[in-house]
Design brief:
33% of the residues lie in helices and 25% in strands. It has helices at residues 7-18, 37-47, 87-103, 132-143, 172-182, 199-209, 251-262, 281-287, 302-307, 317-329, and strands spanning 28-32, 54-58, 64-68, 76-80, 108-113, 147-151, 166-169, 190-193, 212-222, 225-232, 239-247, 267-275, 292-296, 311-314. The strands form 3 sheets. Strands 10-9-8-11-12-13-14 form a 7-stranded mixed β-sheet. Strands 1-4-5-6-7 form a 5-stranded parallel β-sheet, sandwiched between helices. Helix 2 packs across helix 10. The chain is globular. Residues 13-25 have low confidence and may be disordered.
Length: 342
C-alpha cells in the first residue's frame, strides 16, 4: 500500500535540507572613527549592541593607521565618522576603515557621515573652482563604500554625485519637536531663512507649523564675509526663528538676527543642523541678540556649550540609529523624513 505525503510535508523536508546552505542575514557591526565617538556610542546603545573594536593611531610622520580588532567576514558593517574637527584626517581615516573592512570580506560597508565634508563646494561658482563634494563622493565609492547615510546635505543634488545609494536624513522632525516644546508663542512666530538657498527648507517647516515665513537676501563679497542683507517679509512684534543647515563663522546668522531685531522682532532664535562654529563664531554668538542657538549633535558640541550658554543641542542619534536598523533589516527609511523615532 502506497503511503501518501502532503505538500506541506514536502516543503518542510526541502526547508530542512536547504537550511544549512540558505543565505543568512549578515550580523551587524558598528565601528566609530575618532571624530565623534560619543554619537557612535549613543547609536549602538539605541541598537542594543556593542561598539566594534577598532584602534586608530598616527605614525610619527602623521600617517593614519587603522586596525580592525574583530572579524567582519560576511558582516553588515556601519562606520560612523562625521566631517568635523580635523576634517582631512577624519576623512582619510574613514576611507582607510572602509577599505580595511572591505578587503576583510565584509558583506556590505555603510558609511554613516552625519555632517558631510566639503558639502559647500558643490558647484563651479567661479572660474577654475573645484567641485570637491563630487571628488569626496568618488573617493568614498572607490574606497569600497556600498551605501551612505548622511543628514541635511548642504545641497541635495550631492546625492547624485554618487553611483551608490545615499540616504539623506532630515533634522526637520526633531527641529519641529524642539520648537513646539521650547518656544511658548510658536503659533504666532515667523520662520526666517537667512539666505535664498535655504528657502525650501524654511517653507517646509513653516507649512508644518502652519505659520508664515520670511526671507533674507544676502550678497557676499567673498567666502565667509557677508556684504549686504535685505529682509523680505514682516516680522514686527513676532518671535523670529532663523533656520539654516549649517553655521560656520556665524557671520550670516548674527547679521540676520540684527536685521530682524531692527525690523521689530521681539525675540530671535537660530536653529541649525550642523554647528561647526569655527574662528570667531562663539564670541559672535555671545555678543549677538539671539535668545538661543539650537544645533544638533551631528558634530560634537560639548566644548561649544561650555564656552557659550546660548547654545543648546538636539540629540539626533535615535534618527541615525533607526536608519541603521532599518537599512540592516531591509526596511523603508522614508518614515524618518517626517517623524522622530521614540
Amino acid at each position: 500500500m502506497k503511503s501518501t505525503i502532503t505538500l506541506e510535508e514536502v516543503v518542510n523536508k526541502l526547508d530542512h535540507i536547504a537550511s544549512p546552505l540558505s543565505p543568512r542575514m549578515p550580523n551587524i557591526k558598528v565601528f566609530s572613527g575618532s571624530s565623534h565617538p560619543d554619537l557612535a556610542q549613543k547609536i549602538v546603545d539605541r541598537l542594543g549592541i556593542d561598539l566594534g573594536k577598532v584602534v586608530t593611531k598616527k605614525f610619527s610622520n602623521m600617517e593614519t593607521c587603522v586596525e580592525i580588532g574583530e572579524s567582519v567576514r560576511g558582516e553588515d558593517v556601519y562606520i560612523v565618522q562625521s566631517g568635523s574637527g580635523e576634517i582631512n584626517d577624519n576623512l582619510m581615516e574613514l576611507l582607510i576603515m572602509i577599505n580595511a573592512c572591505k578587503i576583510a570580506s565584509a558583506s556590505r560597508v555603510t558609511a554613516v557621515i552625519p555632517c558631510f565634508p566639503y558639502a559647500r563646494q558643490d558647484k563651479k561658482d567661479k572660474s577654475r573652482a573645484p567641485i570637491t563634494a563630487k571628488l569626496v563622493a568618488n573617493i568614498l565609492s572607490v574606497s569600497g563604500a556600498d551605501h551612505i547615510i548622511t543628514m541635511d546635505l548642504h545641497a541635495s543634488q550631492i546625492q547624485g554625485f554618487f553611483d551608490i545609494p545615499v540616504d539623506n536624513l532630515f533634522a526637520e522632525p526633531a527641529v519641529l519637536k524642539w520648537i513646539k516644546e521650547n518656544i511658548p508663542d510658536w503659533k504666532t512666530s515667523i520662520v526666517v531663512s537667512p539666505d535664498a538657498g535655504g528657502a525650501k527648507r524654511v517653507t517646509s517647516i513653516a507649512d508644518r507649523l502652519n505659520v508664515e515665513f520670511a526671507l533674507i537676501h544676502k550678497e557676499r563679497k567673498k567666502a565667509n564675509e557677508v556684504a549686504s542683507m535685505v529682509l523680505v517679509g514682516d516680522v514686527k512684534d513676532r518671535t523670529a526663528i532663523l533656520v539654516d543647515d549649517m553655521a560656520d563663522t556665524c557671520g550670516t546668522i548674527c547679521h540676520a538676527a540684527e536685521k530682524l531685531i531692527e525690523a521689530g522682532a521681539i525675540k530671535v532664535y537660530a536653529i541649525l543642523t550642523h554647528g561647526i562654529f569655527s574662528g570667531p563664531a562663539i564670541s559672535r554668538i555671545n555678543n549677538a541678540c539671539l535668545e538661543a542657538v539650537v544645533v544638533t549633535n551631528t558634530i560634537p558640541q560639548e566644548r561649544h556649550m561650555q564656552d557659550c550658554p546660548k547654545i543648546q543641542c538636539i540629540d539626533v542619534s535615535m534618527m541615525l540609529a533607526e536608519a541603521v536598523r532599518r537599512t540592516h533589516n531591509g526596511e523603508s527609511v522614508s518614515y524618518l523624513f517626517s517623524n522622530v523615532p521614540y
